[in-house]
Structures are given as C-alpha cells and as structure tokens.
Amino acid sequence: MTDGELVRQTLAGTTSAYGALARRWSARVLAICHARVGPSAAEDLAQEALLRGLRALPTLSDPEKFGSWLMGIAVRTCLDWLKSAKRSEVSLDALGARGDATAMGLASMDDPACDRQERTERLLSEVQQLPLIYREAIMLYYYKQGTYQELAELLGVSAATINARLTKARAMLRHRMMAERD
Known about the structure:
Elements: H1 3-11, H2 16-37, H3 39-56, H4 66-83, H5 112-129, H6 132-144, H7 148-155, H8 159-181
Helix pairs in contact: 1-2, 2-3, 2-4, 2-6, 3-4, 5-8, 6-8, 7-8
C-alpha cells in the first residue's frame, strides 16, 4: 500500500493506517533528528515529529509526498527544540543513570565490550561534529539503510551528491578516528 493510500485512509478515519505510516518512516525521522540534535534528544523529537505529522495531516496537499513532508516536520521539530529552553534539559540516560556497570565507570578497562562501546561512543561523537550535510547523509544512510536514490529523493539532491557526501563524511571520520590513535 502506498503512502498516499495510507494518508487517505487515515484522513477517512482509519487511525491504524497512520500507525503503518509511522512504522514505515520512523527510522528516517529518527535519523534526521539524530543528525540535527544528537542522540540524547533524538528519540523524543522523532516521536514529537510523528505526532505533529498526525495532527497536521489534513494540511498535506499531496498525499503521495507524505515522506518528504514528514521529513520537513522532523527538521522543524528539531529546530524548535534547539531554540527552546528544553534544550538545556538532560535525560537520566545521558547522566549514566541506567545502572549498568559501564555507565557507572565500574566495568573493567580490559573488557572488550567496554572497548567496543568506547569506540562506538567516540565514533558517534565524531559524527555529531561533522557539518550538517554530511551528518544528515551518514545518519540517514545507516539508520534507514536505503539506496542512494531513496536518500537523494528524501533530501532533494541527486544520488551522485549523496555518494559524494557519504564518501567525504567517511573520509573525515576515518581521518579523525586515526588522528586519535596517534
């Protein structure tokens, strides 16, 4: 079933149709939010964007363009959050309140899982420092795992541009990660 058909069903009163749309687009919305605001607030903002999408659905002029319309809502949700006072809030997860040994600094430094987690955290930190166009391409590519053409349509650029951005982002990350080793 196409996005347009699901949008029309939702507008006709079948609310479960929006659930199918949300499941279809949630990874991409999360990737946009993660690229724009980082991991600490991305999930909450992705949920907020999906909710805003449901509320604003009657304003969508072309149901077939639901995806790009929703991506715009996700971007605006992130921008609104960045301008707001909520930006200074810190989640318990960010403070290490999960209770696991690694978060509390109790894991052994010789533990391979600890080393992998540290590398992953370092990589995510470096991704967050990339310029937005590269960060967005990387996050969408790895969250969504779509084709270059699909990403190009979402971002309104060519597949060649997606390829160039991913190549540049990977090179920048490789350089930064290797510089840390030295």
